[in-house]
């Protein structure tokens, strides 16, 4: 057999779980993941395939084989499809008010503080490290209105090795935003967004895993028609990602209907803000026509199940979006509307919320009217949202363990989980990992074949 020397940067041997499609998880048992110089999965070799033994021999001799222990498993890194980076500073607090009051009482005053670069640096550095430690290898971030601090977030992602998609937030309507925290006017907001796009595109040239600028109108209620129009045009000019909030909460949904006489989805589309690269958070109140429009445009939904339990006023019908309309859907933590930065927590809540939607919750309502049939999601489907669904939503080759996808992975241990048989079916092991593992179970995290978190190294640092 011909030698395979120098073909791969390194080879990893282990058992992995990955979504095959929306409903099925595939087990890749004792497989060899052959990683190319540019950080992609170049080849996956199964134990019964040609070259398996030779590859192990060759890469082990060269010291380029990493072999996982029998209690370790490989999962794709998570994609957080909606997160407010500045709100990390208030995560786990301030969840006692509805959305409108929450924004004005807690969130705008906090975000205004990010005019201070040193403060931004501290919060953003800590957040990116925490996300990596939690297995989040890609994140789609809202920053704040401040161009400089938003760029700092992109730089921190670049330095720490996370794949970051970052938006400088636009909120320019003087009627809707406080004087202490808004863009001066639409013209300034658009000019600063354009400068920010150029800066991040430049940074991306030196960032192997990728950092991407994102056009980010906060949501329709924050923005004038002029800024919405200008941002749609900018997104088209640079062919960049777009993000916003869409039909979240009774209040936000009704506000848009009153202002435009139409739903968020239709209005956003008319401003050029629904595209293949657009991701809209929440979408709890989409009509059937709105869902159809999302499908036609290739626009994705960022489902944020923990946040929705506080601010959403409804459970987003994810099963319907996926199954009836083939809309792309991923999972978002929505820090700090959602309190947890951990996507394992959000996967679990996605399942739980969907089951409550299926059955309904009011005992005084008769059982056949209480819920919405066909709404429940399986664990496999929720796992898909946090991984492959997020990758598809961003139109990036991430979230799956397959050839030509990035080597973005987390290695988790099952030590401490209730596994009492060596012949436990692997798909049961998978379910235990997703339902029961804690962040401490994540031992290594890799992005584009760079190790960005190693629990043993972190522990040693803490001991010193
Ligand atoms: N709508 C507008 N801004 C926000 C925000 O920061 N969080 C959430 N959950 N919804 C919003
Ligand atoms: Fe949000």
TrEMBL record:
Residues 73-449 form the Amidohydrolase-related domain. Pfam families: Amidohydro_1 (PF01979). Its cofactor is Zn(2+). Catalyzes the hydrolytic deamination of guanine, producing xanthine and ammonia. GO terms for molecular function: guanine deaminase activity; zinc ion binding. This is Guanine deaminase. Its EC number is 3.5.4.3. GO terms for biological process: guanine catabolic process. It catalyses: guanine + H2O + H(+) = xanthine + NH4(+). It comes from Candidatus Enterococcus dunnyi.
């Amino acid at each position: 057999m011909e030698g395979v020397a120098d073909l791969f940067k390194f080879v990893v041997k282990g058992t992995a779980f990955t979504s095959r499609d929306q409903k099925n998880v595939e087990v890749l048992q004792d497989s060899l993941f052959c990683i190319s110089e540019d950080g992609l999965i170049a080849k996956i070799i199964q134990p019964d395939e040609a070259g398996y033994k030779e590859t192990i021999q060759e890469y082990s001799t060269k010291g380029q084989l990493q072999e996982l222990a029998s209690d370790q498993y490989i999962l794709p890194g998570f994609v957080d499809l909606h997160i407010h980076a500045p709100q990390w500073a208030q995560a786990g607090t301030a969840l006692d008010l509805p959305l409108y009051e929450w924004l004005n009482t807690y969130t705008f005053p906090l975000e205004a503080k990010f005019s201070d670069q040193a403060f931004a640096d501290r919060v953003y550095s800590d957040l990116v490290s925490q996300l990596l430690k939690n297995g989040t290898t890609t994140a789609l971030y809202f920053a704040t209105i401040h161009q400089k601090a938003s760029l700092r977030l992109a730089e921190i992602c670049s330095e720490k090795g996370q794949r970051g998609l970052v938006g400088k937030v636009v909120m320019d309507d003087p009627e809707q935003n406080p004087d202490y925290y808004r863009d001066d006017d639409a013209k300034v907001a658009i000019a600063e967004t354009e400068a920010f796009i150029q800066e991040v595109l430049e940074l991306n040239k030196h960032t192997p895993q990728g950092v991407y600028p994102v056009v980010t109108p906060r949501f329709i209620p924050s923005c004038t028609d002029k800024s919405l129009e200008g941002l749609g045009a900018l997104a088209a000019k640079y062919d960049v990602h777009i993000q916003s909030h869409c039909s979240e909460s009774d209040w936000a949904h009704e506000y848009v209907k009153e202002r435009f006489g139409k739903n968020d989805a239709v209005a956003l589309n008319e401003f050029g803000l629904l595209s293949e690269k657009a991701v809209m958070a929440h979408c709890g109140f989409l009509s059937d026509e709105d869902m159809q429009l999302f499908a036609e445009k290739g626009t994705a939904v960022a489902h944020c199940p923990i946040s929705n339990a506080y601010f959403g006023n409804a459970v987003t019908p994810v099963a319907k979006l996926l199954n009836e309309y083939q809309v792309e859907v991923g999972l978002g933590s929505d820090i700090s509307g959602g309190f947890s930065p951990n996507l394992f927590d959000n996967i679990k809540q996605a399942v739980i919320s969907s089951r409550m939607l299926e059955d309904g919750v009011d005992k005084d309502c008769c059982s056949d009217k209480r819920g919405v049939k066909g709404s429940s999601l399986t664990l496999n489907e929720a796992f898909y949202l946090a991984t492959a669904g997020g990758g598809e939503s961003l139109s990036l080759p991430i979230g799956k363990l397959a050839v030509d996808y990035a080597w973005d992975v987390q290695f988790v241990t099952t030590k401490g989980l209730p596994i009492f048989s060596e012949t436990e079916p692997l798909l049961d092991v998978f379910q235990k990992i997703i339902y029961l593992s804690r962040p401490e179970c994540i031992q290594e995290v890799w992005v584009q074949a760079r190790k960005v978190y190693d629990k043993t190294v972190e522990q040693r640092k803490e001991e010193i």
